[in-house]
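User: Can you predict the 3D structure for this chain?
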Amino acid sequence: MSITTAIPEKKDIAEPQSKTRVFVQRAADYLELTKPRLVLMILITTAAGFYLGSPYTVNWIQFLHTLIGAGLTAAGVLGLNQYLERDIDAKMPRTQNRPIPAGRMCPMKALLFGAFLTSSGMMYLTVLVNAISGFVISLIVVSYLFIYTPLKRKTSLCTLIGAVPGALPPVVGWVAAQGKLSGPAWVLFAILFLWQLPHSLAIAYIYRDDYAKAGLKLLPVIHPDGASTRRQIVINCVALMGIGLLPVLFNIAGGLYFIAALFIGGIFLLSGIYLQKSRSTKAARYVLYASLLYLPCLFIAMTIDKI
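Assistant: Here is the predicted structure, written as structure tokens:
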């Protein structure tokens, strides 16, 4: 009697592995659609707003609910933005490999996924935190998707308009903690509003050729010599130096923050002045790096000063 052993074919072994690989790739694409690094930055400013807005002790359950709601909404909005700008992304080398323009994700799936996350986040905040936080985050959704995004194709003023939804996350955190909108929340708004202008203009300066090919009407595209962009970066860094000290006047922070704000604001301003003198893309990258350093350092100093 002979004993035969069935040897599985290679395709039978490979099939489960390929299915796993496809699943991992799809999960990675959905994650990429939400721009997790940008969501993290939004959550940091929202958390800072909540902490600074807490009158005595932090309600950590409310804090967690706020971050969940804000995170879901931010992820959804950024996904919907990629859906709306899929034709633009397909024209720029640095964005061509995103899930939709690369053909790895159907636009309709991206739309449904983004809409689900956005509506879930807004509802979550409204029901489990408070109505005013849900209202403020709805302003972010509307202004970012339906005002700022289409205006990028029409006017350089889109940078100013886009700074509004970008400056509202700490306000979401503040009203989530206090249940009302007060003066200090507008101080946090003003800081983020002014911070975004040199930050966004530096990015536009670096990638102005890509943006021009995509037909976006950003300042460095309309004025290719870059003079107006460099000037605006310096002007807004100077304004940020002053506005950045307002938390001391509004009793949000104290002496430690005052020194930190002067120091990191000065670094930010120096990077802008260096760009004004050198006019190089490398200098614009220094402005971008300084902006990425400025915001977390500022809010960390503000938070430590409150302890």
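The chain has two domains: 31-180, 182-307. The two ends are 82 Å apart (CA to CA).
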